Amino acid sequence: MxxxxxxxxxxxxxxxxxxxxxxxxxxxILDKLEAGGIDIIECGFLTSRPRGEDCSLxxxxxxxxxxxxxxxxxxxxxxxxxxxxxxLPPDQLPPRREGDIxxxxxxxxxxxxxxxxxxxxxxxxxxxxxFLQPVGTxxxxxxxxxxxxxxxNQLKPFAFYIVDTLGSMYRNQVARQFHLIDENMDPQVKxxxxxxxxxxxxxxxxxxxSNIQAKRDLILDSSVYGMGRGxxxxxxxxxxxxxxKNIQSRYNVAMVxxxxxxxxxxxRREYEWGYTMAYHIAAIHACHPNYAAYLLNKQTLTMQDIExxxxxxxxxxxxxxxxxxIRQLYAQFQNRAIDDxxxxxxxxxxxxxxxxxxxxxxxxxRTRETQVLEFIRREDxxxxxxxxxxxxxxxxxxxxxxxxxxxxxxxxxxxxxGARLILTSNLAAYGxxxxxxxxxxxxxxxxxxxxxxxxxxxxxxxxxxxxxxxxLAGFDGFRPQPEASYYSREAVLPVxxxxxxxxxxxxxxxxxxxxxxxxxxxxxxxxxxxxxx
Length: 533
Known about the structure:
alpha/beta, 19 helices, eight-stranded parallel beta barrel, elongated, seven-stranded parallel sheet
């Protein structure tokens, strides 16, 4: 058995940066991977929805050909068609020509198997090598796998895959499926493994498979620095070096590291991928990693909370991501309705006759600290802080709507004389004597992306308390680097950079809908030139 490496950086890694690598970078990455001896190189997606020449999303193999190394090639070049994701049907594929990509990887769900095999046959008839990749192989029974293998033996594609879609397979599961397929599949068909790193097992599983004496060649999928959605993939540089040292020295790993230096390192500073506790929890409950990503981007839940929400997903709906379902389950988890009329009355009485100052944890609180403190000294307002606490601003109340934030700032508030904790009802189990609890559901707005933004929730509460004018500071808006956006490092939590500015736009819309006069004391993305919304 031989072992080959397939690099999928430009395809699987594209989930991180929206496939916007840049045309020159795409060509350079393909060239360096080929020069580094990588056996099979995936160029991106073939799709009915391409997005310009700077993206690794292509309408036809002819669009890829100019990007391939213009020299005699040793590597095999392929692209993926994902059934159900703006796929490109085979009747729109031209016959393969000299200089085109060599093959097509076809990924499909269980219910798409009949169509997938028909498509694969049509692609093979047009001269392409076809890789068949059933999504979520871990969830196929032995009988279901063997039935697929029977069809593979009739079709004889280039390769058939074990796809650990959720990164949930341990070595014994991977080896067992490998042996089952290897014993029953035509030896001329290669067997591939596509792992994800939710349980930090992509590399170890690849090592296990590479040491099995099998009837056929093995293909191991990887990407540079493990770049890929969620927990990411097997790193190309690790598996290439392992093969060099333990099987046969044939890869130039320095070329792979050059790709990281030139094209991946700066993306890693802007985007998050790789093992996290939330993706680990998703894997152990056999949930699609996008469920964990959705809950992480909320920035409101502890890991125990995330696990509770994931457990509530019906088992039959865990493998395929359903955004409507997770949005509903998140809202159900958070929305613990209470009658807060007495709390609203008490807060209204405290605010009566006072100017109101709301401090959000933006970086401008640090850069404009003197002006904010002078306003507090001069006007003696009722001061609210939102999801943070700092005694220098002499807060009268700290508003918290997130279990995660409460864990961080709760001990600080205990040491601040005179500061009252105002908690939303989803935190009723975590409060203490003297807290004011307000109804979570009456504080949220209808926009799902920013419905539970703590600043918006507090402003909506103040409206219920009869406020007409509010002074704001620290409402800066989002920046791609979270650490550049916040007053305190404790406020910085992981976030999907791709959503930041969409959140900002929607935040602005919700602020404009509030019947409050808002005066900004510090620079804000939400203010007009007069310092108001």
